[in-house]
Design goal:
Blueprint lengths: L8 E7 L12 H14 L4 E7 L2 E7 L6 H19 L13 E5 L4 H9 L1 H4 L5 H11 L6 H4 L2
Antiparallel strand pairs: 1-3, 1-4, 2-3
Helix pairs in contact: 1-2
């Protein structure tokens, strides 16, 4: 085969530093659109971006020539600078150092998109910390809780 083709679907999750509620409601939708644009600029198709004042979910593809860590580095670095430029209250904004990256199949994409669309509703009853721990259990990822929240 002369051509290299791939379609790897990802569910990316990351929070603000210390999970602080510092994403202003006034720019939340613009931030999500910006994050989708950063994904596209790096060769990733972002199907949906959403979240709350302290975290973000991205349903996207992994670019064929990029690692997950490099994609997230670009997304977080660029968006952190963008947020600081957008809102005077965000001059000390930063994302947490870590992230969650989970694979999914094409048949699961619609369910993930619906899940991302309902983030505000979902978080009336559940904290980000509990949500993330449930994801780790769902995907059977071993972790050490003393390091997970740094």
């Amino acid at each position: 085969m002369a051509q290299s083709l791939s379609k790897i679907l990802l569910h990316l999750v990351f929070s603000t530093k210390n999970r602080a509620n510092i994403i202003p409601n006034a720019i939340e939708n613009k931030l999500h659109a910006y994050l989708a644009g950063v994904c596209r600029a790096n060769g990733s198709n972002a199907f949906r971006v959403g979240g709350t004042a302290n975290h973000v979910h991205i349903a996207c593809t992994l670019p064929r020539t990029m690692t997950i860590s490099k994609l997230l580095e670009e997304v977080k670095k660029s968006s952190s600078k963008w947020i600081k430029d957008q809102h005077t209250d965000c001059q000390n904004f930063s994302w947490q150092a870590g992230y969650g990256a989970f694979s999914l199949g094409q048949s699961q994409l619609e369910t993930l998109i619906n899940y991302i669309d309902r983030q505000h509703e979902h978080h009336h009853n559940m904290t980000f910390e509990n949500e993330f721990l449930q994801m780790l259990q769902k995907y059977q990822i071993e972790y050490d809780e003393q390091y997970i929240w740094n």
